[in-house]
Amino acid sequence: MYTIPIYFSIARKPLLCFTCLVVLTVFVVSCGRNKKPVTTEIVNEPEKMDETVEKIIPKLTAYALSDSGRMDDSILLSQAGVVSFLYDEYSNNPLWSKKQQWLTQTDSLFAFISNAKLFGLFPQDYHFTHLETLRTRFANDSLEKGDRKDAALWARADILFTDALARLIKDIKLGRLSRDSITLRKDSILTNEFYSEKFRAAHSGNPLRIVMTALEPGHKGYHELKAGLILFLDSADFTAYTNITYPTKDSLNLRSAVVRRLFESGYLDSSLLYPDSLQLAMVLKKYQKGKGLTIDGKLGAQTIRELNNSDREKFISIAITMDRFKLLPEKMPEKYIWVNIPAYNLVLVTGDSVKIASRVVVGKPKTRTPVLNSAVSEMITYPQWTIPTSIIVKEILPGLRADPGYLAKKGYGLFNNEGEEIDPYTVDWSKYKKVFPTG
Q: Is residue 377 part of a domain?
């Protein structure tokens, strides 16, 4: 027997240790994960399909639980724990098909997912694309010689429908926004028993829309918004338009993106794909006039914001607002102040009556008014307000340097330490050069 000596240089020991650590990590992770389920399992006798699907379902759910909800490379279950619990309750029987045929409630659920936008939801969050593809594949195999005989496909479809319904229950009841400091409701977690109860109601043949509507918040504002959403969706255009990054230092990319966006909106035709500065300014003025904006032919923040404000972006804003209602308690306090930032207004509500209504000033897009909940202990009318140092440094002083009449135009006054008003035209602003970035 020959012995072959193996030598390691000291310099390579760290590399060897690292390699061993990586291999060990992969080994441990692999041991903790269930064996990947089969992707195809053909059943030639339709009467045995459900029995085979019943055997595959627990393997798929167990694998997903061991891999953070990932059932395979392209499918991630958002409610893997709930899905596993529900199938345990039903002894892993297929819930959405029987002998290679969809059940009536399956068609109802798919239709509901297709129209999820009516509830301020996004169909793609509920496996819509995968389910649509699977349904098409099964429908195309009308002679039952291919996909319809694949028990693994039926099992995957079944689990996707169950996960979709579980997530719908959660999203309609609690919303999709994370629970943070502005959350007022206390039931921020749904139990498996709650899912089971709602699942039975939705799966037993009750109209799905009624079951889901019962999960929604009862706030008047939510339902007014939802009613408006229905009208909005009737004419909404969800075309994916070019998004313009602004502000940006890359003026060429900004100009190119604006030109593409104007072309997509029909304000530029193919003969003006490369407009010069004058032509672009004329088109911008036409766009600004049509949108009720300041007509200056310039690429300002107002114009860019409107160009980015597509129907898709509007829907996202509506969906977020509907979810914010779901962060509120089922019943509001007897007396509360409600500030609607986008509407620039405030109301003081007592019971069901508005006692005070007022306009409010809100922050700019760069200095947004925060969304918050707070207890109010006292209210001061006509409070004294001093401009914060940040505003003085970033806005007031640069504005005064460019135009001594800046304060008057903004409605501000300038006072000394004794409270006496100062004429800004008499101030030597050169003393304040350190505040300014240039000259």
A: yes
